[in-house]
Amino acid sequence: MFYDNFKAACERHGTNITNVLKELGRASGNTGTWKIGGYPKLDIVMQIAEYLQISTDELIYGKGQAPYADTHKNELNIDEEWVEIISHIPEDRQQMCKDFLRTHMVVPEKYADSKKA
Fold first, then answer.
1. What pLDDT shows up at residue 7?
2. Class of residue 2 by CB neighbours under 10 A (exposed 0-12, middle 13-18, buried 19+)
3. What are phi and psi of 55, to 5 degrees?
4. Which residues of 97-117 are buried (b: 16+ CB within 10 A; e: fewer)?
5. How many other CB atoms are found less than 10 A from the CB of residue 21?
6. First-to-last CA distance in the chain?
7. Is the CB of residue 39 less than 8 Å from the CB of residue 70?
8. Cα–Cα dist 58/60, whole Å
9. Which residues lie below 8 Å from residue 26, measured CB to CB, with a gap of 6+?
């Protein structure tokens, strides 16, 4: 349910539903409807997702529960923890991290044979 997903997202971000809605200038009067299975209008869902820096899918379906989420994850084979870590690298440090991984962790194909010997 939307309410449970919203509440869980708030907890992960160290806040609560009332505070988020207040910050967004939204009334918290509709949360009772959300508790029993109702959904807010799309613009509100988008505003909440942007504020919490999460996807609208996470609010609607739950973390990692979108119907197509597993397809994407398996297709790309990316561990969720990597995505979480990478998403928190400051912009001014991203290039340094990419360069480090390329030079220290990725073995270029042309050197693979000489390393095996």
1. 95
2. buried
3. -85, 155
4. eeeeeeeeeeeeeeeeeeeee
5. 22
6. 56
7. no
8. 6
9. 44, 47
pLDDT, residue 89, reads: 86
Dist. CA 70–CA 46, nearest whole Å: 22
- List the one residue out of 10, 111, 102, 117 whose CA is nearest residue 63: 10
Query: Residue 10 has which token pair?
Result: 């708030």
> How far is it, in rounded angstroms, from Cα 94 to Cα 61?
30
**Backbone angle region of 27, left / alpha / beta, with phi > 0 → left and psi within -120 to 50 → alpha:** beta
Q: C-alpha distances in angstroms, 21 versus 30, 40, 84, 87? A: 11, 12, 25, 24
Residue 71: its pLDDT value, please?
Answer: 46
Cβ neighbours of 8 (radius 10 Å):
14
Contacts of 21 (CB under 8 A, 6+ apart): 27, 28, 31
Q: What is the mean pLDDT of the chain?
A: 81
115 versus 38: which is more confidently predicted? 38
In tens, the pLDDT along 51-84 reads 999 989 889 988 877 666 554 444 556 777 877 8
